[in-house]
Amino acid sequence: MASDVSKDTIYAPATATGVAGVAVVRVSGPGAGAALTALGCKLPPPRLAARARLIDPADGAPLDDALVLWFPGPASFTGEDVAEFHLHGSRAVMTGVLAALSRLPGLRMARPGEFARRAYDAGKLDLAEVEALADLIAAETREQARQALAQLGGVLGAQVEALRETAIKLLAQAEAEIDFPDEGDVPGGAIAAMKAPIEKLAARIASILDDGHRGEILRDGFSVAILGPPNAGKSSLLNRLAKRDAAIVSEIAGTTRDTIEVRLDLKGLPVVLWDTAGLRGIDATDPHHAIEREGMRRARERADQADLKLLVLDAREPSPTGELADLARDALVVLNKADLAPAAKGLAVSALTGAGIETLESKLAAIVAERLGSRDGGAPLVTRARHREALEDAHAALLRARDLDVAELIGEELRACLAALGRIVGRTGVEDVLDVLFGEFCIGK
Ligand SMILES: Nc1nc2c(ncn2[C@@H]2O[C@H](COP(=O)(O)OP(=O)(O)OP(=O)(O)O)[C@@H](O)[C@H]2O)c(=O)[nH]1
Ligand SMILES: [Mg+2]
Fold this sequence. Notes:
Layout lengths: L8 E5 L6 E9 L3 H7 L11 E6 L6 E10 L10 E8 L1 H12 L4 E3 L4 H8 L5 H12 L3 H11 L2 H25 L9 H21 L4 H7 L1 E6 L6 H9 L17 E7 L2 E7 L14 H16 L2 E7 L7 H7 L2 E6 L20 H16 L12 H18 L4 H19 L5 H10 L5
Parallel strand pairs: 1-6, 7-9, 7-10, 10-11
Antiparallel strand pairs: 1-2, 2-5, 3-4, 4-5, 8-9
Helix pairs in contact: 4-5, 6-7, 6-14, 6-15, 7-13, 13-14
Bound molecules: guanosine-5'-triphosphate and magnesium ion.
């Protein structure tokens, strides 16, 4: 067994607490096999479920009639020996099994994320995959789950690995130039010859970054700010789209002050709706309007942050003026209260009756899908700001390297590029440079 005996054996419920048909307890570490036998199970064949009557080792009392699984390391999620108990999902059974495990020597309750941490330490997952695992567990919509699954499949890690390989080769060339500067035919020729491949690598990273932030938007939700004059029915529309009474609605103009946020699953796509205070011209100094002014400030802030502005107008007054006319230029304009203005033209809806809402939902979904859809059919690689920052750092280092003419300095920048790329998958990457350097260049010649 490949387990490291210096490590604790950890255990924890793998399923949410509460009453359920089945609840899973996972054990990982050198004592996992002993935990199975201590609770009265024979070690089942690897990766095959076996039925087992679990008993409390303290007094032999029955704990559950369960299924158990045995994953000897290293072919397991954490790379260690892993045991799983698939229990009846009651609090009493769960409590009994956890208590029995806690009394076994060398076993302790896992800390949050500790199983994934061990998988990462064992090289089973790179950092991007650990993040993808977290995203998959948190996914609320179909498309988020798909993206997380692609990431969990290692798409980003594979790309980064390819970029790193190229950068390592370039660094090896720079190092060779430092050690043996005069071996080329033309002085400085080797350095000049590096410019084009460095530029090409920078361009590859730039094309990965040029993705319209699709991955991050899909992960965080596409934000839609609902804007418009007071009383247009913005909050009513939010409630209608959310299918619940999330925001207060009243006939008093200026009802909404704080921004209200609602998350929606719009045809598999994650959308965050922001309801905002109505925008109108008010006296900027009148203290009676202080709260409304603050509400309007927040509304404008949301308008700037949102991925899409949804401008809601009263269908009886469909021609905005001033600030609202400016907003209308790059907003999706909706005419609400169409029940009161049957002749309204454009995207007419009624938050009151529900008329036109399906059309609006389809329109919204189409806009979101278009913004999140890929130009080349591929899933976006960058799903977190952390990836983007690291790739931007790597890109910047390459551009600096391209403009340098001293091998030592070029080497420095290439190392910075490698370090930035390494951060994505969670490694530093100096040792492998040496391997390539000695492997590719015949030092003793
Ligand atoms: N007839 C009709 N009335 C509506 C419709 N939508 C909203 N209303 C009414 O219009 C009034 C204002 O609705 P709200 O949803 O509070 O409007 P708002 O745009 O959020 O207003 P503020 O928060 O004050 O900016 C309420 O009395 C609603 O019942 C609609 O489609 N048809
Ligand atoms: Mg409102």
